Amino acid sequence: MEALPGAPQAGETSRLGLTMFRVALWLKSPRPYLMLIGFALFLGFWYLAVEVWKLPRFREMPGLTSVVREWLSPSPTYGLSIYSAEYYQHIAMSVWRVAQAFFLATALGVPVGLLLGWSRRFKEYVFPVFETLRPIPILAWVPLAIVMFIATESAVVYLAFLSSFFATALNTMLGVQSIDESYVRAANCLGASRWQVFRHVVVPGALPFIFTGLQISIGVSWFSLVAAEMVSGQYGLGYIIWTSYVMVRYPTIVIGMVTLGLVGYTTSAMVRIAGDYLMEWRVRELALAER
Amino acid sequence: MDQRGHILIEDVVKVYDPLGAAVMAVDHCSLEIEPGEICMIVGPSGCGKTTLLNAIAGFHEITSGRIVMDGEVLCSTERPKATPGPDRIVVFQNGALFPWKTNLQNVVFGPVMQGKLARREAIDKGRAMLADAGLSGVEHDYPGEVSSGMRRRVEIVRALMNDPKALLLDEPYRALDSLTKSVMHEALLEIYYKNKVTIFFITHDLEEAIFLGHRVAIMTTRPCKPKKILNVDIPHPRDYGVLTSKRFRELIEETNDAVHEEALKAFQAGEKEG
Question: Does residue B206 fall inside a structural domain?
């Protein structure tokens, strides 16, 4: 195995060292610069299409400069910018709702998925029901959610939870099914009990799929949260986007959207980091594959 | 020679029943393996030799017959599936070290799960055995970080940690290139000379079989049973010099036709490999 100069030696690498090495490698590669160019092209097109060329379909859109000016203004025209306390209340409210939905979905979805993959009997009971409910779009749940939960708050969290739960449970199940039979057999040969096989083979073996599921889960959780907040709710980023549309505050719509993008990306990155932390073996394998 | 690891295969039949069409994978197969013997099973891919290994290991049921190890009936017509256990450990074709555990954690897995050793003792023993196999440097690496040859050696150490009566190897070196393979063969023999377990080794490589084995059982293709059993009268310990010896070449010539005939049959039957 050929080592790159400065590469950490296998076996004596600290987690921090490994991370630093990967960051350094990333900065040396063309990837960050391509990313910046991508952003520049996108923002440049927005600016030109709306404010310079005034293309037919774009004329009514809020332009880049008006959005940025509004967003960074200490006294915003429509009342919402990085200087207003209300802005952070909306963010906090949405984050809090997603956090509740996501943690609940993980706490229930991972065990259900593990059982679905591990016990054929359990799967025969549950999976057909599961597969019938799963394709129902989250918006179709809105009326029932409002009937079920008199308080709008729990209804909104419930909707965000629901889609998360399905993504997590399904991926966890696929993760268990993806485990190579020979790992289970090897554990049996080595004298592991059924429970030990579950604990030492099934759970860690399914972990890569579980974290793929959690990445999807946090994404759909945001998706359904915003849908739910648009329909009912008094706070939150989805609520802002919808009321700003009703009240004709177009730049604020875009502020809400961009904020959603940034916050959503951050939560998704946190899930990925947690996954890397729990699956150091996989990070190392992938790092080697890149060389 | 140590008197453990005597395996008696008596009249074993295995019929698969996919889609109602009975396929005979193993046909009244009988074979006796002496304690501490290296018995090589040679046959073309898909001939049913892995089915035999799975029956001994306890992964699959047999249809009839019985398999006895050191007087204990592992499986029989009445109780068709053996219970897998640390007295016969399989080394898998594609390797089955747990990728989420370091090599050392893999090696201590058996004794710790069985509660035979305290964690601390298991780690000490695992370290010593890895060192003995020249693998000290990779203790804290994950299997995915070391070469496939090293992974196989770690897997054999993981098996030997349990002091098994027999090792069941299912074409463990199939995926390795021929140079790595030759190194692995000598490493396996070195480990064998220190530990003297019974080795049941499946392969389709005749040279590998004659180089390693005390005896070579050439199997017929589907259904599988011994066609010819060759006593390899080249004395152990062996090293790579054997490969160029006259006797080695003679033994190859003696058996090549039998192997080729079965390979041709398997090819014409067009069975899916597996």
Answer: yes
Spatial CB neighbours of A53, under 8 Å, sequence gap ≥ 6 = none
Distance from CA of B214 to the nearest CA of A (A): 25
Residues in chain A within 8 Å Cβ distance of B165: none
Contacts of B100 in chain A (CB under 8 A): 204-205, 207, 279, 281-282
CB B30 within 8 A of CB B10: yes
Whether A191 sits inside 8 A of B114 (CB atoms) is yes
Do B177 and B205 belong together in one domain?
yes
CATH code of the domain covering residue B183: 3.40.50.300
Which candidate, A113, A222, A200, A122, places its Cα nearest to that of B112?
A200
Beta carbons of B144 and A281 less than 8 Å apart: yes
C-alpha separations of A143 from A164, A171, A232, B129 in Å: 19, 28, 10, 65
- Chain A within 8 Å of B226 (Cβ-Cβ)? no
Nearest Cα of chain A lies from the Cα of B205 at a distance, in angstroms, of: 23
Q: Do B69 and B51 have their domain in common? A: yes
User: Cα dihedral angle (B144, B147, B149, B153), rounded to 10 degrees?
Assistant: -60
Same structural domain, B32 and B102? no
Q: How far apart are CA A166 and CA A168, in angstroms?
A: 6
Q: What is the pLDDT along chain A (291 residues), one digit of tens a residue?
A: 344 444 445 445 566 777 788 888 888 989 999 999 999 999 999 999 999 998 888 888 899 999 999 999 999 888 899 999 999 999 999 999 999 999 999 999 999 999 999 999 999 999 999 999 999 998 899 889 888 888 788 999 999 999 999 999 999 999 999 999 999 999 999 999 999 999 999 999 999 999 999 999 999 999 999 888 887 778 899 999 999 999 999 999 999 999 999 999 999 999 999 998 899 888 888 877 765
User: Is there a contact between B162 and A191 if contact means CB atoms under 8 Å apart?
Assistant: yes
Domain of residue B206: give its range.
7-87+166-269
Nearest CA in chain B to A207: B100
* Domain count along chain B: 2
Q: ipTM of this model?
A: 0.90
- Asked if residue B2 belongs to a domain, the reply is no
Instruction: Please indicate whether, in this complex, the C-beta atoms of B113 and A288 are within 8 angstroms of each other.
Output: no
Q: Give the predicted TM-score (pTM) of the model.
A: 0.85
